[in-house]
Backbone:
């Protein structure tokens, strides 16, 4: 690791600590040439997940974009930001566990709907209305009927 102050490569690690989540290691280092200290962070390199859209386009998975859709569906519901962040962490973990470099957007949308259904029915219907592109009130009614029949 190059010293950010003098550019020398020789340094020693003074202290190492694991982050709260256990995903990052923080290291305090001291340059052997100029004796100044600096901090480095070590984490696992994540291979980007590519999403295959309905029209065949490919784009990188964007947690913020997915999160915005979920937050919109959960607006004015009793769902904390912490719960939504956990939801996103779990979703991203599930996607990475699939071991695929490319995932159809349909698979992601369906996973979100399953998770939302378990979290909040109103958020589920809101998300479904956008994801499934409801055209009119009849689409809402059909989805609600389906939802009620699954609960009985």
Residues:
């Amino acid at each position: 690791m190059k010293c950010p102050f003098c550019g020398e490569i020789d340094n020693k690690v003074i202290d190492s600590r694991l982050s709260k989540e256990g995903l990052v290691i923080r290291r305090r280092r001291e340059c052997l040439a100029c004796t100044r200290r600096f901090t480095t962070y070590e984490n696992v390199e994540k291979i980007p997940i590519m999403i295959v859209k309905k029209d065949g386009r490919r784009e990188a998975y964007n947690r913020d974009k997915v999160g915005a859709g979920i937050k919109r569906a959960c607006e004015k519901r009793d769902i904390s930001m912490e719960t939504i962040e956990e939801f996103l962490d779990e979703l991203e973990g599930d996607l990475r566990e699939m071991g695929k470099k490319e995932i159809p957007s349909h698979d992601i949308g369906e996973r979100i709907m399953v998770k939302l259904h378990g979290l909040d029915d109103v958020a589920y219907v809101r998300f479904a209305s956008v994801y499934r592109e409801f055209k009119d009130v009849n689409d809402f009614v059909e989805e609600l009927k389906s939802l009620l029949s699954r609960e009985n």
Observations:
- The chain has two domains: 11-43, 50-151.
- Residues 11-43 form one domain.
